[in-house]
């Protein structure tokens, strides 16, 4: 019986063969019981040797086989897979495959949704990063532009106010020039004259030295000219330039 069941790899065909074998054994057992019962009934009429012991062993074998068949039937009844027909088994397998595919499709759909959500979050993060960078760049540009405008206004407006609005007696332009050069007003004026016209400034400096050296003589000449009410000649001393002999 085991050889008949194990021939082939299809479970449905194996179940069919198992049922066929069991049914064949049931028929054989029925025939064997009828034969044993017939022999027992005819024993009194026929003078045959005593087969009681042999028949007893046969009956024990038949009972053991019947018990095995009953156990097999019970196993088949308790096992849903063994009790199913090939068509039912195919339907169960197809249903299980469809359920697995549905689960896989649901998992793939969820994975796709998660991917879309993550990509959207990444785009949002990247966009906010670019926005912050643009804002910083714009703030830097506005700051530099404001600083440049402030410097230009500080350069132009004070001079305009000092020249056009403030009274001349306040001397704002001169004071601003001296403050810019970080020098007293007299020295800043000399520096500006020397820078603007070096030759003219040299002549002014030479004349100042002559006047300073002949201050008393010039004062006396000025008094004589005032009394005479006309120009008079004066004698002055002129020193040689430094570094000459």
TrEMBL record:
For this UniProt entry, which segments traverse the membrane? 140-161
What protein does this entry describe? Uncharacterized protein
Instruction: Show the InterPro entries listed in the entry.
Output: DUF6118
- Report the superkingdom from the record: Bacteria
Alphabetical UniProt keywords? Membrane, Plasmid, Transmembrane, Transmembrane helix
